């Protein structure tokens, strides 16, 4: 029976990790997978997370099951981090998930249960896993214009024009901040226009928030999400703790559902717990517990925020350096978009041939669509990349 299986296409980003490892050149530079790395190329365990782990080891007396939807303390801490002070507690349902990917998956399954005919509108381009999960679930999908390949910024006019076709009951999947793969993000004015459109059309947003704290800061990165939450009766938020807590392999995420009233909240909460039970029963607890400890202990939280801020400003400095280097080499400002982008990624706008050339000639690995991970650089490798970009004729 199993011999009837059809081979599935590999994940290009993960495949690139393997190619990089296999490259014997000592000067190789990994700008592929979206994992934060410090200047030495190491992905550290954050200080506050390590402290929380120590405390947990000392105090944890049982590892019996938690609640099916996850611990209420985790829900509250994460809802506070994402939605801020004005949190409408009685309208929020929450579900601990297997990473941010699990939150996206459960969110889409929840939508499918509520409205199997919903069309899910996705940015063009978007994180490839959005498309493969949607296809796997058999959900209707349509792209909306997002990236202006000339300016390398958001094509807001194109986006709004495409989304003017959304129907009541449709869902718009938006990246909360630090858009993957482009690095180009909505302004608050854009978010307000999106909120007005969704309200007018009776459509719902699903916000994928995987990089809160990596762009303009913890609150600024959630500002668009909070604006939607303040203006719309309902929305879904799929958030990841992988990046901002550096706990990738712990698989920690959350799905939040903002509902019009407490009765719908209860309905959504019950259905979300049902979805966990059908898919894997309980989500992993270790990462969620660490996150809860860090967010609710003043000392741990201050230390976490400080370290996250170092990570964020470090990436911004690399962006500035790369843009400056390219300004000098090309005697133009056409790469200044790199300094305007936010998060780990920028889409350079190179052709697949140019990406290949940078890999062959300089051992620089970026994703085939010319997405580069800024955190894969350091002050020494920035000039090497800038030279390679110019050499490749980008
Ligand atoms: N959404 C986006 C846009 C991402 O880039 C990622 C990956 O890092 C995720 C969701 C989910 O990440 P994870 O499942 O590792 O928490
Ligand atoms: O886009 C990235 O690089 C990150 C990490 O199947 C990632 O989101 C990449 C591929 C994948 C899961 C996570």
Automatic annotation (TrEMBL):
GO terms for molecular function: identical protein binding; L-aspartate:2-oxoglutarate aminotransferase activity; L-tyrosine-2-oxoglutarate transaminase activity; pyridoxal phosphate binding. It comes from the Bacteria. GO terms for cellular component: cytosol. SUPFAM superfamilies: PLP-dependent transferases. Gene3D superfamilies: Aspartate Aminotransferase, domain 1, Type I PLP-dependent aspartate aminotransferase-like (Major domain). Pfam families: Aminotran_1_2. One of its GO terms (biological process) is L-phenylalanine biosynthetic process from chorismate via phenylpyruvate. Residues 27-389 form the Aminotransferase class I/classII large domain. Keywords: Aminotransferase, Pyridoxal phosphate, Transferase. Its cofactor is pyridoxal 5'-phosphate. Homodimer. Belongs to the class-I pyridoxal-phosphate-dependent aminotransferase family. This is Aromatic amino acid aminotransferase apoenzyme. It comes from Phaeovulum vinaykumarii. The lineage of its organism: Bacteria, Pseudomonadati, Pseudomonadota, Alphaproteobacteria, Rhodobacterales.
